[in-house]
Specification:
- With about 110 residues, the chain is α+β, with helices and mostly antiparallel strands.
- It has one domain.
- The chain has a three-stranded mixed β-sheet with strand order 1-2-3, with no helix packed on it. Strands 4-5 form a two-stranded antiparallel ribbon.
- The longest helix is centred in the last third of the chain and has 19 residues.
- The two termini are about 25 Å apart.
- The mean pLDDT is about 85.
- The chain binds zinc ion (2 copies).
Length: about 110
């Protein structure tokens, strides 16, 4: 799974996932991984939910923070914003929405 270091200096790793609910393995191990995080597109830092203060501006550069999106995992895999094929992104976002709807619908 794609992982990013938390910019807050804590020992946890931020788990990036194309699944809107987060990677299940990472979600099951919150002491090591955080599936809830914010990302600063301006300075490319990731802040875990234990270090950022509720979506406040980036502590490093003051930029606006983004919540989790499948785009973050893809950007890490493809090497940056703008390198992710838009068609792939659209498919994954769509699939994520369908997956989420199904999960909410019950088992
Ligand atoms: Zn942290
Ligand atoms: Zn920043």
């Amino acid at each position: 799974m794609p992982l990013a270091e938390c910019a807050g200096g804590c020992p946890r790793l931020v788990s990036l996932s194309v699944d809107p609910g987060g990677n299940p393995m990472a979600a099951a191990d919150p002491a090591r991984f955080r599936v809830r995080y914010h990302h600063c597109p301006a300075c490319q830092r990731f802040w875990c939910d234990g270090c950022e203060q509720g979506g406040s501006p980036c502590r490093s550069c003051g930029g606006a923070l983004e919540g989790p999106t499948p785009r973050h995992a893809l950007e890490l895999i493809f090497g940056g914003r703008g390198r992710v094929p838009e068609r792939l992104l659209a498919t994954l976002v769509l699939r994520g929405t369908v997956f989420e709807a199904r999960r909410r619908g019950g088992n």
